Fold these 4 entries.
Entry 1:
Amino acid sequence: MINIEGCGLGLRSDFLLDVKKSNFQPDWWEVTPENWMHMPKLFEKAFEEAVFSRPTIAHGLSLSIGSVDKLNRKFVKQVKEFLDRYNIEYYSEHLSFSSFDGKQSYELLPVPMTKKMVNHISDRVKEVEDIIQRNLILENATYYYVPYSEMREVDFINEVLEKSGAKMLLDVNNVFVNSVNHTFKARKFIDEIDKSKVAYMHMAGHFHDEDSNMKIDSHGMPINSGTWKLLEYTLKQINAPVMIERDNNIPPLETLADEYKQMKKIVKRVQNG
């Protein structure tokens, strides 16, 4: 658990300049350092007003914690500078890799779910934490194929969290998507995940690809009813802050505010029993 409460929203440049004139403010923001470390001057003032007016979490894209490449310490130091500059206490990333042979793909690629990878990621987590001087939070990622795996996803995640000491960003949509694509029960995954490690949660949208007959984690659609129901089930077991993440086909802020209010109602309903 982290020292942030309520419901959050991912801050995006698409609607940043509308935040101040809007009547809507989430309980907290989540920002992606890679998108803001070198932002245009046009956005600087509005960004600072937003993140200094609400608690803010940073959620990265290119740490590549599961890569066999040497850790990009220069980049991690840049992330620390960003966190310090904006007084951001919490930094989360994906349990995946995105770089190989020194090149950054900016794609969240799946890691083999093996004991060897548990040890490798745990060592890298500690190396990152030594630099950023913060506890790292790792998110369960979507995957469509994973090579050389010898463990179930939930067991792999639990072992990484236990050995590394990292906290977890539980993406409810990712659980839903993976459960359909890989034919396991989403609620059983929630039952078995180490709830003491969950710092906060994500909600997002996905779509069904007819050609492959798979759920695709697009972050570009409204949240569907199945994912809302899984959130409600999860909230009955895990009392953690939750937010909406929208990265593609970003609608006006007022549309996101409506979805945010729907999430807020679900949270309050569960809390009130």
Note: The chain has a mean pLDDT of 96.
Entry 2:
Amino acid sequence: MTTVEPDETAVEVAGKAPKSTKAKLIDAARWLAIAVVIFFAARSLITSWDEFWVTMKGIPWLSSALSLVALVGSIAVGVYAWQIIVDELGKPIGYARGAQINLVGSLGKYIPGSVWAYLLQMELGRKAGLARARIFTASLIHLGVGVVAALVLSILAMPAVFANSPHAWWLLVLLPIGFTALHPRVLTWGTSLVLKILRRPPLDHQLSYKLIGKVFGALVLVYALQGTHLWLLANSVGAPGFGGFVLCIGAMAIAMTSGTFAFILPSGVGAREFAMVAVLTATAISGPQALAFAVASRVMFTVADLITAGGAALTARIQARRVAATT
């Protein structure tokens, strides 16, 4: 166990004592922040809905449904990867509790500047009795391992990427750097450095190959499911086939990573679509059709985010009522 966990006894005592005015104001601010991110997510959904619906009318309902299921599955696996990192940094919190913090907090990405997602996750974690540093550190590790997993899968789309952007060779240069960063000693050192910057004690043990392997494997599966989501949409017009399936996985790996680093934009808008279109046009899909699928994918991502975040919040509330009823 590490030292990024707050004093549990103090948290329990604070939870039983009457809330101070400051605590009430902080709670109100959290609820306001959640309302704001839901507003931005809903606005993103509404503004793209007409264009989305035009595209979806030409796609069989079964392909659309399976595509959405693949997205929801990718989000669920992503939460697992994040949660096991959080568990490594302190007392295990369990999947349901981790899902509430991660998924509801992740809606902050719909506000321009992806930093809001991390801030909201930290605040939700703090409300659950977890140190902000623990949540932030887990999110950074999750992001770092995810970037390396995306770089590995981007190789699948390299033929299409190089055809559209000859200068994309830097992706290959980053691979050995990424694998080096995943070495337990290097990753532990980097994590401890972040904790030092946050004025928290460093990790008291080295991150294991087993943990890093689990997170890496889970995030590879995340991108594979997201690629399946895109392929199910594109294959509905009878174009990509198996070769397109492989390209779609690589495309989503590149697209999601591009969207992550386009942090000025809400949820990486624009950067993600550009990467998708660049790869899809390497198949038999036309440019306008590829753009339509990219827009449809973005809307489906928003729907999946809202469904999973709402489900996680509802599950957490039901569990809290059950616990309250038994005490």
Note: The radius of gyration is 21 Å.
Entry 3:
Amino acid sequence: MDPCEVVVAVDLGGTRMKCGLVAADGAVLHRETRPTPREAGGRAVLAALLATVVELAQKAAAEGHRVRAVGVVVPGIIDADSGEVSAENLAWVRTPVLAELRAAVGPGQQVVLAHDVRAGGYAEFRQGALRGTTNSLFLPLGTGIAAAMVVDGSLVSGDGYAGELGHTRFVHGSAAEQCACGQWGCLETVASAAALARRYAVRTGRVVDGAREVLELLAQGDADAAVVWREALAALVDSMVLYTTLVAPTRIAIGGGLVGAGETLLAPLREGVHARLTFQREPEIVAAVLGEEAGMLGAALMAWDRVAADESGEETR
């Protein structure tokens, strides 16, 4: 492999880190996955992240590549001014992630820190299912639910707070469950992959192996699985109709683990949204295409954007 310029890209998840060395043309020259030591606590997670970034940079140098920047994406709430991150599933509370990354890579190396879902949405916008749109939505349905919003051709950050669609209330009354965020009836409590498994277990007294088994039971005609699935779809349709009414996306790309259900998921979402809209512009509803690499690729794209901005003399945060 000929030496070239690369960025280090890391997508830090609650279970795994997806990592890569990515060239300016988007070629992934090296990719690997490492475990996230979440059970060992927040400090251990941060230490593992820092070690990963440093080791990937060292690997790049050993192969003759020049590292131009580091891009890291994480879940949770990122304070855009301080670079502090609060993420429940990583045991981080106002953890100074950006400062620690900068200290680890040393002076003179650009570091970009961003939200994992926004990064995944950015990759889909630049290279995937949202390419060519100016108003669109990336909605990954996994352990949790968040969204990446493209409005008038730009990714919306909200100073690090935007896109938490999973924490809007769509379930009311006695059916509402308390969410990990502290609210009741959040979309995430009924329509995430984790919620499907939990709600099926509560309804039947039978513990299942995640949303995958609920979908298998659904295919077999299980009535309880059908109820849980129908309730999840109803809440998702509500959320997509609300978003469509407010922001008018032309395309919504569904990602995350649940998109593996294919048309079992997508067809009723299209039908439900179509039935509810009156004057609103109806969006296409499609599957995201970049899969588990979306976050890592988005981290790389954002890092290369920072390099380009520096070279052009533009101000960047």
Note: DSSP finds nine helices and 13 strands in the chain.
Entry 4:
Amino acid sequence: MNFNDIPNQLAVKQLLRQSVQREHVAHAQLFRSSEGGAGLALALAYAQYLNCEERGPDADDSCGHCPACTKIAKLVHPDLNFIVPVTTTKAVPKDALSSKFMADWRSFVLDNPYQGFNDWMQHIGAENKQGSISKEEAGQLLKLVSLKAFEARFKIVILWLPELMHPATANAVLKLLEEPPPATVFLLVSHAPERLLPTILSRVQPVAVRPFAEADIADYLHAHYHVPEAKARQVAQLAEGSLGAAIASKDQSADHDYFAFFRDWMRLCFNYNTKVAEILKQSETFQKQGRENQKELLAYALVLVRKVLLFGIDPRLMPHLPAEEQQFVASFAKFVTPRNADALTKELTDAHYHIERNANPRMVFVDSSLRLGGQLRAA
């Protein structure tokens, strides 16, 4: 994977590039990334950049075509190693170790490097079991790093989700970080670094990975999955910085125009005392969407209400709204203020809660509409 394959993340990419160009490569680095973020993708791009055979001294990216780049891009380079959480499955009924799942891991990552732990568990057929990096993995890791690099400058060990390490494995990793093998770079990719041993945290160089911006997610969906621009923006708003979540929900969300529904709904809510018949009619549309789409619509509504509030406080806080949304947000901002924002948020959150617990969708929608209308008029 090249750096250019990853949307934005310019500051982190520059930091990683400079560490190589200045020959200040830390032997252990911790990529702090939220689930669905760029942590794993950046670690892979960094590994490829480190071992690229034709990279110039000031190159911004790996060449992508030398033997090392080709092998790393396919995750088959002998000096690129992975330790990941696993569990026993039908295919591996005992002695579950990362090495036994490498074919699955390659297909998983090459399909989408922004997936999370639950996606991985489903991919290997873990059913209801919880994966971990077992204590038996410690011995495998020690054997792994005892060998010199086969053909690359650096032996790379990527530990994905090290917070799931068994204490024995965590202690083995700590020992390796205290006395690192020569020409070996450990890249830890964590979604919950606070669960790691403090002694491990003290021996790694942190690499803070920011969540993706909405515009980056929307552009990625449009370019890679041909999601229409308006739908891509809608999915991006719901993803809350997680490209993995956006990719997972792109097909479901693409069939519904949540923005148009929300815009029309708010207009009815504001005039609820004269629009009861129209609210009842829209409740039928809401019911037909299905429970998952109903929940997603309400989640989208929460995101948009927050945007409206921020725009009303200072339009500069929302500088990149699409033209259609900006027109609505600008006019709606006078009805969403610090005085009623909490109440509006509570009504939408309560509606989501009731839908999640199988309440009658029409009743929830009508009740929420009347309550929201009262709050909008109280602004």
Note: The chain has 17 helices and five strands.
